[in-house]
Request: fold
Amino acid sequence: MNAVRSRAVSPAGSAAERARIAGSIAAASGTAEIDVQGETIRATHLDRVYWPALAQEQVPAVTKRDFLRYLLAVAPLMLPHAIDRPLTLFRWPEGVGTRRVRQKHWEIPLPSFVERVEVFSDSKGRPDPYILCNNLATLLWLGHMGTLEFHVWHSRVRPGPDTPVASIDFTSSSAALQASILSYPDYILFDIDPYLYSGSEAPGKDPELNAPAFTRAKEVALQLRELLATLSLDSRVKTSGKTGLHVVVPICRTLPYDGVRDVARFVGEHLAQAHRALITTEWTVGKRRGKVFLDTNMNVRAKSMPLPYSPRGLAGAPVSMPLRWEDLPRAYPTDFRLSGLLARPMPRSDPWTGLGRHKQNLETRLTRRPAR
Reply:
């Protein structure tokens, strides 16, 4: 299938269509025939619990029915961040707490509405198929299949005016893939991960979510924003859905991953040097203890980031939530759980709206002379 085909309809469909689908899911017993954008999805086991209740925190269970309703509500905000990006998916077909499946390539026949792209694999010497979540039908089908976490590449399959690279040859060889648009990311990712422990973790486990640690993560995010601003680089922030934060810088696709990673590493190391007591870029886990790990190593082709508005496969169904910078000081990850978001009106606007229209040219920014 041609991954860069033109689109005749809005990816998320109309509000009326989504309301109709939500109504049919709510009225169904255990199975629903979902008619979406001219396609039919047969969703079964609608009352299967995907996320068990957290009684001690008064968080209700989330069923497949609830999850599909959430995906319908959030689709206009979520899909623009997924369009044309190869996916890495994490599936719990029987629900969180059961077997997890990390899914990049599907061996089963896929529905006709699911767009795919073939990408050359160095280890296999041949292309592998990746799914693209380019429409509402695909989003709902993936939810039905137990995909509880959506992770996306940092690059897209479609060329555009922000890049001189036109090649969409992702399949013929490693060299061709390296020269293609998939090797040119359209944002820099900074992963902020606090290694400050609550004291109740089991030996050898990563830090669990705790308020003092997340407060320090927010301090680092704000310091990073300030440093990026000195380089005339605008940035956006979201919760990771776990214990930390993601800061992204939207960029024109003029540099390959190696160049973008070098820029990210330079910025990260500069910030760590300026705040040695708080920030570390150490890759060795033992050396991170008591500090906030600023990870720039994810700026690599085939690495991925949790999609904005994607839930995580953790107890309580936390969501990776985009934020306005001015809302960050008051934010806490448990403020953004799937059940809570379903219980209140979905935000009308996305703090990351227009991310693709506000790209910045790294080469221009980094070679600009300071004003006298």
